[in-house]
Amino acid sequence: MTPTKPKFPMTRRGFIARSIAALSAGPFVFPSLTHAKTMTTSDTDAVLIAAAPDSRQAEDRSIRPFTARAPKAAVDDLRRRLAATRWPDRETVADGSQGTQLAKVQDLVRYWVTDYDWRKGEAKLNAFPQFMTRIDGLDIHFIHVRSRHANATPLIIAHGWPGSVFEQIKLIGPLTDPTSHGGRAEDAFHIVIPSLPGFGFSAQPTEGGWGLERIGQAFGVLMTRLGYTRYVAQGGDWGAGVVQAMGRQAPAGLLAIHSNLPATIPPEVEALFHGGPAPKLSEKEGATVGGLGAFAKSGGLAYIVTMGARPQAIGYGLTDSPAGLAGWMLQHSGFAQWSYGQNPEQSPTRDDVLDNFTLYWLTNSAASSARIYWENRERDLISATAQKTAEISVPVAITVFPEEVYRVPETWARRAFSNLVYFHEADRGGHFAAWEYPELFAAELRAAFKDIR
Amino acid sequence: MKLKKLQLAGWIAALCAGLFVSAAGQAAEDRSIRPFTVQVPQAALDDLRRRLNATRWPDKETVADASQGAQLAKLQPLVRYWGSGYDWRKVEAKLNALPQFKTNIDGVDIHFLHVRSRHKDALPVIITHGWPGSVIELLKVIEPLTNPTAFGGRAEDAFDVVIPSLPGYGFSGKPASAGWNPERIAQAWGELMTRLGYAHYVAQGGDWGAPVSNAMARQAPLGLAGIHLNLPATVPPEVAAVLGGGPAPAGLTAKEAAVLEALRKYGMTGGSAYYAMMNARPQTVGYGATDSPAGMAAWMLVHPGFKDWSYGADPAQSPTRDDVLDNFTLYWLTNTATSSARLYWENGARGSVILAAPQKTGEISLPVAITAFPEDVYLPPETWSRRAYRNLIYFNEVDRGGHFAAWEQPGLFAAELRAAFKSLRHAH
Fold this sequence. Notes:
The complex is a heterodimer.
Chain A: H1 16-19, E1 63-66, H2 72-83, H3 102-114, H4 118-126, E2 130-135, E3 138-145, E4 153-158, H5 169-176, E5 189-194, H6 212-225, E6 231-235, H7 238-249, E7 254-259, H8 267-273, H9 283-297, H10 302-309, H11 311-320, H12 322-329, H13 350-362, H14 366-375, E8 396-400, H15 410-416, E9 420-425, H16 433-436, H17 438-449
Helix pairs in contact in A: 2-3, 5-17, 6-7, 10-14, 11-12, 11-14
Chain B: H1 2-16, H2 23-26, E1 33-35, H3 42-53, H4 72-82, H5 88-96, E2 100-105, E3 108-115, E4 123-128, H6 139-146, E5 159-164, H7 182-195, E6 201-205, H8 209-219, E7 224-229, H9 237-240, H10 254-268, H11 273-280, H12 282-291, H13 293-300, H14 321-333, H15 337-347, E8 368-372, H16 382-388, E9 392-397, H17 405-408, H18 410-421
Helix pairs in contact in B: 6-18, 7-8, 11-15, 12-13, 12-15
């Protein structure tokens, strides 16, 4: 099954070490499989893993155009595995309390096999300019779309888990071309959407240490390399941790950050969650604590604990079973209101979600992406203390989406961020707010950064 | 005829509820004990091999040890062997050389081994495995227990051995509805021993077998003379309260303080994550483990009982590579990765099985015996054990063995049961 002259694959550093000189411009050329070092026993797998990059070489700072193109063999292999899925028996409850329900996953997998088309998802990505550049030893993939409005504000958006750049592509139009989306030209953005290290098309770190700090630094380097001397940063989920790290690092050029999962749990509430005494809380704060407590009590944190403790242990099954991968990711609270495609009005659609899962699958990043939990296992993402928000001096903007598990009270936000310039509770949206309501999300960013420009 | 009417009503109700009526449900009134033979179709073994050989691997862990989970370089050769040289038929033959049966209890078909000693007055013992174990874990203790004189023991110390598969595990049926917690399992085990005609018996358990045996002791079914545990629920409440942090209670002995430290370290280094995961979302973790044998093995190898396992590199070690693969293959062939995980969910908010209060050890008046194996996740101090179990008739700390004590040190394990139950041999 060796392709003779395939082009534009979506493999990563598998051939970068050998091909850097030849690839200062132009798309990747897929080397023959006989030269590739593959970790799988399957010929059809698209993912190639190279030897660790040689850090003694002067780092190549070139920005290379990138096009996603999975080999047909990899797409066929995925389908074959999905069609051969071996299923457990049904859960013994009538709801999702034991986890992703069998009937729902089976339906989704059936669709994934028969009707879903990865090439459409690929095309969605390839409709935008994509690039690779090497930062701190890793190839970082990113989408980069410039607005036609010359004075647009550059904006970098960081995704989380189990998300990807697919989550943010619906924002590109509204953000770069606001006048076509009910906005003003003055509110335009140039947009940069990277894939986190270990996720999507970005390379997978071979060593520990790629925590939020290092990712934040890499993204600061990215914006500078792109020639941006003034920019803003946005993030939710792990992306929030990344932009907060950038806020602490305050790289030259960073004007402000926006977060939709800000680290705002105050110390006395954190202590309460660890068995300490109940602090005095307002009604709103009490409701938030109650919500978080209920979530924890119902097992909502288990996947976080598991990936934080043993990312490799859980990774094997997710790498070898696409149904396993989907079943695992669908437990995320961000999917709690997802209709599995039953509601045609809902975003993300079934295809959107499968684009996202298929990206994890084809890039073999289930285990590498889980490691972000490991890297940050001792630093609670929503704890103000753990995320050292007191060290952030850049202006901070926050939007709270109502269906998010953690409903941030403004009192806590003001305590965590001394320079909070924007705080707004939206009227709809959840964890994957950008994916669910892109127009609303874009409007939030316009409002949040209006006075920063 | 009345039976048929009841059954009909049951079927209609079940169909209305959209439930599939299994053969086990129809046989709910059937108390027969049916001989059982393991006969795995060759197609299932071929499918397993195909999947193993087509395993798609992640990149390597970013640490130099097993702290992120089973290491790639250790798991790959294990899976390679599993997909080539390993032979399921060997353990199938071992199992089929032993008397195996099925009987329907409380709506679930229970599989069990039942080996009677040739010595008269042998003491019947029901031994319960845990997760990720199975009856296979206990095969090596059958002979030492039923045939003690061949193992340096005395005929007076012989046992009849009953080894069931937990509901949702091995060849036992999978409960279709919630509620099969250790209490219910214990009740089923009491019924099983009665059904086997035993009027005087003891129970033994480690891992999930411990809460099950605890529950039996609390229920005190007719005939149960006492229990032996190797993962006893002995952590006192004031210590349980600070396992996650906070000042240690005053007055701990050096040994108790050391055990508290060890438990805290275990928690802080992610040791109980697998427990929390299955306790919360057994179905979610089950999908990958059901569709990928390598994924299933990796998940099971996360159990701290395997922390010192050499993956077969040490030929003197038990369990051997084949032993462990026998056990994993049993889970695979019976498609019980998910159903077995549900026991954690069923245990609910009771939390860790080593805590005395949630296991209501204070309600146990029957004799309790404990053996502490040094490499297990929890080394119970005798002081805590005496507090938890007011009728502690035996406590011994041995010098070797870990979580899978019966698997690792079958001779020692059998000797412990002989010593532990010596005083309970005759009905009072």
